[in-house]
Specification:
Elements (H helix, E strand, L loop, with lengths): L5 E5 L5 E6 L5 H11 L5 E6 L4 H13 L3 E9 L1 H6 L5 E3 L4 E3 L4
Helix pairs in contact: 1-2
Length: 103
């Protein structure tokens, strides 16, 4: 049921994984498995209003530890920004919005 709150989608050319939806428990674990199956991934595209702070932190550590870049083209708030900060290089599109708050 938690996995239905978000989507992890491999881009057609395989260099990026798109994360959309709520950061729910188990997301970091599922992302790690997807990355293991696709070692050519170089970046994570984020689009989320947030969710569980521990998952945001876990995804951020995973991104950092694997040396991945992060991208936001639309909106990334709350737990999503924690994940965004893990990027080796961080990119914001012209319409991107980041929403930070203290947790």
């Amino acid at each position: 049921a938690r996995a239905s709150q978000y989507a992890l989608t491999l881009s057609p050319d395989n260099p990026r994984i798109h994360i959309t939806g709520t950061f729910a428990l188990g997301m970091a674990q599922r992302l790690a498995a997807l990355l293991d199956q696709n070692p050519g991934v170089t970046g994570i595209v984020l689009h989320s209003d947030g969710g569980h702070v521990y998952e945001g932190r876990g995804v951020g550590f995973l991104i950092r530890d694997r040396g991945l870049d992060t991208y936001v083209f639309k909106a990334c708030s709350s737990a999503c920004t924690t994940a965004f900060m893990g990027g080796a290089k961080r990119y914001l599109g012209p319409d991107a919005r980041l929403g930070f708050h203290q947790y």
